[in-house]
Amino acid sequence: MSESRTAIRVLLVDDDPMVLTGLEAILRAVADIEVVGRAHDGETALKQTALHFPDVVLMDVRMPGMGGIEATERLANSVRAPRVVALTSFDTDDHLFRALEAGADGFLLKDIGPDELAQAIRTVHAGEAILAPWATARLIRSFASGEDHRARRDAAGLVASLTAKEREIALLVARGLSNREIAAETYSSEATVKTHLARISAKLDANNRVRIAVAVERAGIVEE
User: Fold this and answer.
1) Over the Cα atoms of the chain, what is R_g?
2) To 5 degrees, how large is the angle CA 12–CA 181–CA 223?
3) 7, 72, 131, 142: most buried, per Cβ within 10 A?
4) What gap in Å lies between CA 101 and CA 219, rounded to an integer?
5) pTM
């Protein structure tokens, strides 16, 4: 367990003891992350959250009894709600949409690598949403499907107000890249990327990364 006072406090929730052990082993090797508890179902997760006040909960979607979706919804509506990252072995649209509707701040597959998992926890703790690239693509298609010509024209008008650099970053967001990846791709600092994202959000009237990606899709520039 990390001794750092600024360590990110994480609760692990999964009905498979082997998965819990594996996740804990990975995260205990990370200096800025502290595993404060484990739970095997949603009900236990709620109790552990009330006891340990984690900053981030890694929540298995499918569990016996109270599953991860219901537990996520309850946590999202609780006082001092933690950030929740939904984990699953199945990349199904139903799990993705239900988890996000319940209030999850991220959605990842369990086969994510150790470094990517640690970075995802940091990203969510910092207030950003985190989605696997395939999940971002599916959300874009879901939001944008069935849009009429006017909605697409309005989106194109908003996207046209972006500068060349903002447009580049918006396209990278639509590809599912994180701030760190965007910084590397554009040879910028993460602070600069965050500044650009704030301006993009204001211009596109988009309050999160998914909405930015949807605006780009509607404007018809995702293949650039």
Assistant:
1) 18
2) 115
3) 72
4) 25
5) 0.66
Q: Residue 84, SS3?
A: strand
Q: Where in the chain is the domain with CATH 3.40.50.2300?
A: 8-131
What is the CATH number that goes with domain 147-219? 1.10.10.10
Structure tokens at 64: 């016996």
Q: How far apart are CA 213 and CA 142, in angstroms?
A: 11
Mean pLDDT by 10 residues, the chain (224 residues): 69 94 93 95 94 95 90 88 86 70 83 89 86 64 57 77 92 85 93 93 82 79 57
Sign of the Cα torsion 196, 217, 89, 64 reads: positive
Domain 8-131 is of which CATH architecture?
3-Layer(aba) Sandwich (3.40)
State the Cα–Cα distance between residues 223 and 97, nearest whole angstrom: 24
All CATH 1.10.10.10 domain ranges in the chain, comma separated: 147-219
Q: Are 152 and 41 in contact (CB under 8 A)?
A: no
- Strand duo 130-131 + 83-88: pairing: unpaired
